[in-house]
Amino acid sequence: MTTLRNKQKWRPFFSGLGSLPGLLIFFLLILYPLAALLLQVGFPNVFNTPISWKPSWQPLQQLFANPLNGQAIVNSLILGAGSAILATFLATLVAFARVRGGKKMGKILDTAVWIVFFAPSYVIAQGWVSLMQEGGILSELLNLPNGLTQWFFSKEGLVVVMALRYIPFIYFALVPSIQNIGLEYEQAGRLLGANAGYRLRRITLPLLLPALLAGASLAFAEGFGDFGMAAAITPQMHIPLITYQIYASLDQTPVNYPSAASLSLILIVIMGLAFYLQFHFLKTRSFATISTHSKEQTEIRNHHRGFSLVAFFILFLAFFLPIGSTIIQSLLKNYVTHLDAHSWTLVHYKSLFKPGGSGLQALLRTLVYALTNAFLTMILGLFLAYQMMFRRSKINQFINLLMIATIAVPGIVLAAGFIFAYNATWLIPLHFVIYGTPICLGMAYLAGSLPYAVRLQIGSMQQVSGNLATAAFSLGASNLRVIAQIVMPLVRTTTVSTFFMTMTGTMFELPASSLLYPPGSPPFPETIQQKFNAFEFARGSAMSILGLIIVLLLYMLGRWVESMLLRSSNSVGVE
Amino acid sequence: MNMRYGKLLGIFGSLLGLGFLVSGCQTAASTTNANASQQQNHTTSVSSTGHQQLVLYSAQGYDSAMAQAFEKATGIQVKLDDNSTGTIVAKLEAEKSNPHWDVAWFDGAATMQALANQGMLLEGWKPSDYDNYTSLGKSLVPSSDAYFPGGVTAAAAIAVNTKLVSPSEYPTDWSSLLKPYWKNEIAMNDPAISGPTFPFVAGILQLMGKQQGEAFFTRLKANGLKIFPTNGVTLQALEKGQVKAIMIQDSALVAAKEKGAPIQIIYPSSGVFTLPDVLGIDKNAPDMAAAKKFVEFVLSHQGQQVMLNPQNGGGDSYFNPIIQGESPNPARQQNGIHWVRVNPVQAANQENQIQEWFHDNITE
């Protein structure tokens, strides 16, 4: 009894210390680089030569003087919200098909959704464009006259394509929640005479709300801040989007950092607001689906064929169309004007495997970055989410909100922030100018992936009722022990997801790769982009497909390892 | 079992994090040391370490081959950052207070001029092989000597699809495209997105005068001009018969023709606009000597031969040489091109205003 009391006395002290690593990570990876960029909203010459701390309203004035920016913000809000809503609807269908459809179906759907997720935005976008553009692959295959596919290059077309792209975010958050809904809730409903529709509306869906919102908010953030899609599709339709405005002020001459910073500030404020509202809403009620006496949902026998068919159709649209078109593109000879038996070649793949070739070197380099980053993101994401959920303090909540708002910060903005932050002259005497080194690029990768990991982990931890952890703590369990025995088993799926999500993300991450790579050592996504820049679409497509295959193989390996771990832990008899 | 797993995970994680930070500091320290000493006293750092290093930011297709050739010729190690022009300029601007680069190389004198206007480039130095420039070449060197052209292309020429257009209908000048024959059958790139297109628009405004030039684009739009983002898309539209004629950078047209596209390239009689690839040296170049040597290498016969080989540079190799004694790739038209030099100072100063006008009146 005395030991227990002692432990309780020391706990506030340790938990105060506990937020320190989180704070440090957050500061180095996100706050400092972002601040270095956003500082220029008010102090446009702070990184100029000579450095000037003179404040100025000019960047904000210019921002509001350009009517395009206002239109861009409205368009982006519409696109983000539209695609998040549609994606939530589609993903819910697929997720239910997954949980209710038996083991085999589950495996197939999981893999299919993962593949959708693997594919980087710009590859998917490029695939859609070459499929749908006038005289594109679809018109060639179906012999369509000019003008029939033009509807695609519109706001509505973009909403559909983006929604299909964001299904995985919601799906990943949703599936574990559906699986974890304690059967007792539904049984109680059934006992009280509620029919299936009523149970779905009043019991199942409300319990899924945290997961749905977590997924949908990620989808909204993606849609609001997506560059891959915006960069590939919007130039063809001339609709201003906020991401494109930012991209234009950074990547098209004349470069204007203060303007990019101002636009980014607006992006962050809107996203922060959206997430704040979401948290506020969630705080008002409990959404724990796992109580201290849950029964696991046993497999339900009555398979819904309709569900499965719909799910397959959705994934076909989301994946096979754009990726199929990328595969076709990668097998085409240069300058083919129409498809026939003589249009095909494997030369683009063969050239990738030339020994000592630059593509292969870049691929190996990126594999190292991707594995390191995936590992760090997985560990740190778990750690930070745990801190925020079970070690509540004002600092942790503040970090949480800011970190999640940074999900909306486009990669290119954060990457630019890294240049200013880690190439700053005040770091020279400290010997800490890490810009231009692999460490700096690695940190930028981590900064990009960590907020996602934290967000997804919090979503899955929100299901653990606080009682469970409190009970464990009051029984004297250590932090590590609570993590290992209560939290870990519940968030294992999300943890594995985080690993592969991050790995894929890094394999194809473009903005940080191109702005921060150490000269002379280009990573894989950069070499793909160089091919696309040089209009070698076939070569670029072949490289993308190769990258996808590698990630897929690693994913399958990961699933195998996970099932091995699961088996060994079950055999020891831990619940 | 689970607990041990968790504990191990925790320990491993913190070790990894620690290692990550430590290695970060070490690498950072060594790089910064090198940087700082190079910047403070370049010559001593070079003689003490014994080898030089060139950091090259480039958007040119042949840059990788040039880096290798330069390494072989001089023994100076090249660290290449190969990116699009936009990304390179974004990096140069962000690094302004603590630059890491020695030489920047991309298409577009106006863009380079904008960097010179900010005082970022070395001025008042001439390469030793300067006198080998042709007169066209010399005309492209600014009076401040802030940057040097390595070759020149036409920012735009006209190309027609030979399967759809009979020779009697071929246009002869820009204004030919205003004829009803071309209604809804012409395309060009968006100057806000495609680098080579801005000098084309600026060139038209300079050649015809602002009012006449704007009227030309407005009439083209009334004649159904289509705007695609970049060369690749616009070329595809021509090859697939969506349009019958396009106006894009001539080197990209030559490259497409060489690969078998059914097109005929026409140089309009009133003139085409110079789009040189330009090299600028960082005023605070960490390795100034290597930077100067590299510019001289680009202007040398050896360097030009590497650049002119399409195996090395793809489409970028079909440029027009401006060094005496060098001849272009045979696929390229040799004579009858009327070059109009686009004033880079003027173009740089008016870029915002021209881009905005074009976007509001033509692209939208």
Automatic annotation (TrEMBL), chain A:
Q: From the record, give the transmembrane residue ranges.
A: 20-43, 72-96, 108-129, 158-182, 203-221, 257-277, 309-332, 367-386, 398-420, 432-454, 537-557
Query: What is its membrane topology?
Result: Multi-pass membrane protein
Give the UniProt subcellular location, in the record's own words: Cell inner membrane; Cell membrane
Entries under Gene3D superfamilies matching the protein = MetI-like (1.10.3720.10)
- Principal location: membrane
Whether Transmembrane counts among this entry's keywords is: yes
Query: What keywords appear on the UniProt entry?
Result: Cell inner membrane, Cell membrane, Membrane, Transmembrane, Transmembrane helix, Transport
Q: GO cellular-component terms in the record?
A: plasma membrane
A GO BP entry: transmembrane transport
The ABC transmembrane type-1 domain extends over 73-278, 363-558
Q: Which family does it belong to?
A: Belongs to the binding-protein-dependent transport system permease family.
UniProt protein name: Iron(III) transport system permease protein
The record lists the organism as Alicyclobacillus tolerans
Q: Write the lineage as a comma-separated list.
A: Bacteria, Bacillati, Bacillota, Bacilli, Bacillales
TrEMBL record, chain B:
Q: Which InterPro entries match?
A: SBP
Keywords attached to this Swiss-Prot or TrEMBL record, sorted alphabetically, are: Signal
Name of protein:
Iron(III) transport system substrate-binding protein
Among the entry's GO cellular component annotations, what is one?
outer membrane-bounded periplasmic space
As given in the record, the signal peptide range reads: 1-28
Q: Which superkingdom?
A: Bacteria
GO BP, sorted A to Z: thiamine transport
Q: Which PROSITE patterns match?
A: PROKAR_LIPOPROTEIN
Q: What GO molecular functions are on record for this protein? A: thiamine binding; thiamine pyrophosphate binding
Kindly give the SUPFAM superfamilies that the UniProt entry links to this protein: Periplasmic binding protein-like II
